[in-house]
Sequence to fold (617 residues):
Amino acid sequence: MNNNFAKDWFGRRKEEAYTYQDNRNRFFNWDAGRTNYSSYFTNTNDSLQTSAKMIGSMFRVIGVPKTFDYKASEPTNINQLQIPIHMLKDSDGKYRDPDPEILDAFYGAAIQNAALASMQTTSEYGKSVTCRNTRRKSFSLKDYLFSIINTERIDKKLSNRLPGYLKFVQKFKDHLYNKNYEAIDEEESEQKRLLDLLTRMLRYPANVTEEELKEFDKPLKQIERLLKKHGGIPETGDACTSMATSLANIVYKYIDDKEEEKPKGGDKGDDEDDDEGDGTNPGKTPGMSKSELNDFAKEMMGSTFGEDRSTESDAEEMSAFQDFVEDMTKESISTKPNIEYSDKGIAVDGDVKFIKSGSNRLTYNECLKSTDTTKAAVLQKLFARKSKDYQFSMRSMRSGRLDTNKIAEAAQSVPTVYERYGQVKTDKICVGVLIDESGSMCGSKIDKAREAAIFINEVFKGMRDVELYIYGHTADESGTGSTQIRVYREPKYQMEPFALGSVTARANNRDGDAILATAKRIRKQTENQGILFVLSDGQPSANDYNGTEAIRDTREKVTKAQNYGFQVIQIAIEESVPSKQMFDYYIKMTDIKNLPRDLVAYMSRKIDKLIKERVTL
Fold:
């Protein structure tokens, strides 16, 4: 097939293999001279199994939510992501010998799946998962076309944010085309051939010939008008649905003319039958039914997006896949905390015990009634305004992608005929709370601490871009030198909703150990930066842990906790030791009623440092 097609509906450049890449203004040509891009990340003699685990780091860069589960087969719900490990194996299920072409394609498939999960809303990703599921009885040609168009939409987003990763995606597409594509026989239905051509024009434009364009000139003009109406690649999932529906209808209704149309009003020959009511038109080949085209689209889905050859029913195979995932995520985006609870609700980390808390609904609700939650709404709005994720465009630029609205100016050699796209995004943050539950906190101080923790819980628990962790600590309960930390809230574990109602004064407090252990535990569950509130009276005191030495130890371990990416803020309750001796940041709380106001004022000053915008072009 001659690759002489020089036009693309979506503005992808022939020089960049009809992708959304634009290498004309690059500063870092990491791929220069490389036939296989994976060689930039891996050694040529590494096994495929070893090299494949690199995708863990790639997922972290893309921003795959840490709540996702990984599957070897196609996902069936919105919390799953496929790692197409079968691509690395031969027909016997054994890992292939090192093969850079296969590795490039595997990276591309995994990256595209990760981009679909990370660069769409939850509902959009849910639709993507549903439409790719060919096991559904209702699967149709519209689902197939939506999957192609929506994937191109996400590829465009990927090119704007991580153009290097898009090169792997293109390798994956080329791999599938070279491996799976078989030309449709010319004697086949015209609708089949039109759908095959439409697939290649949307997904593999380099593999289209001018002869095919002439043969299907009429429907292609109709399709081109439709795409221009949408302005090229759609910007939203809903627009992809609309375009897919319109394209499907064109294919459903298309029947090629085989003879010239007869003049209107012309007499029929004696041996010609009247065509009224028989469902066919003279001079036209019989069309395929919708169900037949839907079945054909189902076949094409496998060749276009890759066959799912996983054997999830095989326990041994699934165990091997889980081992792969654990190794892949060990140094990147661990999906589970490294510390697990025993049956008794206790997890041990050195001399520190993490204990699942109890619950007290009555106390929780009483505290909530006495808390000014109107300030919670103020803080929520403050964070919501700072949380951004949108794209923007800059027109009339001297470099970038040609602005198709300025073709006339380009013909006149006007230099400012380009447009560039960028994205503004804010990273998620984590908020931790550590409550001093020592004996010195008994009475009104522990009541204030409990109410303060419940207020913070009410502020942040429903925020989409905030991960909330709440703990309480004491010491020497289970032996000299030990530290006990009760877990009231963690995103990765199901806790009692009214657990904070059980906060109470207990025994001693080894503040330095508790603060550092809490920072480490949170960091094992998330890589997001954030803040750690310490609710205490500022008096570290435990067995062989008192006075100046305890204060020095607390100061030292607060600094270490901050090196883990947290801003440690003490909320000082009737402080016994001046906060500045142990903390760089603190809020003095003399009256719980003033805490919401003070917290809003403090967060307003610090929010720009806590939530940072990233602008990419």
